[in-house]
Write a structure and sequence with these properties.
142 residues; mainly beta; Jelly Rolls; five-stranded antiparallel sheet; 2 helices; 8% helix
Length: 142
């Protein structure tokens, strides 16, 4: 994690790590969602097979919160709330809770990285902000 803490929406972004149990049979990772995601998930998707250095995201949400879990590899999340920027690097089992009003871009740093995302809202086309300067102009959505 880098960058100074912010008093804006970026200060509400939280991170953590799953309990991971590895043995000869493989790995088991556990996250108690009720303790870490401040919402009930209604949508789930995952992103995989992105070339090393490839990006996804590149938008903010007006109303949707996203709970992102790095399942494998390493994913960098660049977050911007209209005023402050912060970078989070997630490794296997690490998660981030991205609140509305955060413009986030996910960069898949190594091959075979996978990111699971839980959302508190269904897909809604009008919920997306595709231009980060819209956050700067509006002073974020706080």
């Amino acid at each position: 994690m880098s960058g100074p803490p912010s008093a804006g929406p970026l200060s509400r972004v939280s991170t953590g790590r799953a309990a991971i149990f590895d043995d000869a049979r493989g790995g088991l990772a556990v996250i108690d969602i009720i303790q870490h995601a401040p919402f009930t998930p209604v949508r789930l998707f995952w992103i995989s097979d992105v070339a090393a250095g490839g990006t996804r995201g590149g938008h903010a949400h007006k109303r949707c919160s996203q709970f992102m879990v790095c399942l494998s590899g390493q994913v960098r999340v660049d977050a911007f709330d209209g005023k402050a920027r912060q970078t989070f690097v997630l490794g296997r089992g690490e998660f981030i809770n991205v609140v509305p009003g955060i413009y986030a871009t996910e960069t898949f740093l190594v091959e075979q990285s996978a990111l699971l995302v839980l959302c508190d809202r269904p897909y809604e086309t009008d919920d997306y902000i595709h231009d980060e300067t819209s956050l700067s102009a509006a002073g974020s959505l706080s």
